[in-house]
Amino acid sequence: MQILRYAVAVTSLPVWSELTEADAEPDDRIPVTPAAPAFEDATVVGGQARITIPETTGVVYLIDGAEVTAGYHYVAGNAIGIVTANPLDGYKIAAGAVDSWPFAFVAPQYVTPAAPTFTPAVWGGQATITIPGTTGVRYLLNAVVTEAGTYNVAADASGIVEAEALEHYVIPSGATVVWPYSFTPPDQPVSPAAPTFTAAETEEDDATVTIPASTGVRYLMAVDSAPAVETAEGAHAVPNNATVVVTADALAGYVINGTARWSHTFVPPGTVVRITPAMTSDTSPSPYVCSASSTAGAGHAAAGAFDQVSDGTFSGWISASGFNSSTGVGSGWVRNYFGGTTRTLKEVIIRSRAISSSALETGRSPRDFQLIALDENGAEAGVIVDVVDNPRATGVNYAVIYSASVPDTVIGGIKMLITRTWGNDTRCAVGEIELYGV
Fold it and tell me: Containing H/E element for 360?
């Protein structure tokens, strides 16, 4: 029970008296519970946020202390403040009711979604889709919200990736938000088998091109100037002096992996030709292998004597040492082994490696030397020619310093053994060794 105390003047001194709550004036105000306002962030960049003030009997609402009516009220997109509810006369806020609502709007900002990455499968693998991480954006892979990362999918998968703006973000008009995909399964790699070119055995015979069986490819063959035509598996006769080009095309569902073109010029029986290829290194092309007693550096390797370069460039083979600079006596050798094949040698030409007419350059040229046959295993098989007092180089680079026909000799390689130079240096030099035969 509420106790009220007041003073009553009875005598010259105050006397306190007590009244009960029933004796006090009653509080007849009507309790009211204010409805909560609604807060909506701006939906466009630079737009305004919205506060919806409800209508509640007996209540007046204020935004940041200013009285407002029921309805929509717009504020800055990043506004911070408070809505309060005050009772009107005859009303009071019900006990425990909420009568204030702070707000802090977040203004929206533009965001442009990064594009996902689609990587087709390689043979035997899966395709991948990489979802990027873009602040303010979520991605859906086939309608499923998907975190940033790389995901494997079937090699023939198809579908769609979509981007949606998160709260407080806006995707600008015209930005790409949809990426359909449809992967094509990869073609199966295939390495075509090489055709075989077989020279004629006699002048009356044809040469033969043998087309191999090879899964996933078809072969086309062009003979001399005739157009290429599809050619079946098996042996095909061509003129014994023909130039033949064979190409391999991938069939549907396959892709060529490796060599797909082969060219060969047949030499009629008995035709004398260069019997070694142009060497690009000591071991290329295979199966040929060049070597030497020593070399003066990488630019003067053994292969330099068999590279078929005779245009005045600084090629050729030069030994590191091995000879007396006064007498020229010494020993050095350079050789080319055919890797197990044999040819019939008929003619030899040796060119100088002397880039000037100085005594040093011309003195390196071979004076006494032997050409030694190698057998199919690379072993020495006998001296073909033995030369003494070969003329000194003149200083014209790659000039012929020795040329001779030799008795037909079946060789599996050649070795030039030099036992004396023209002196003035401890090194020996050979520009090119040309071997001709069948």
Answer: helix 359-363
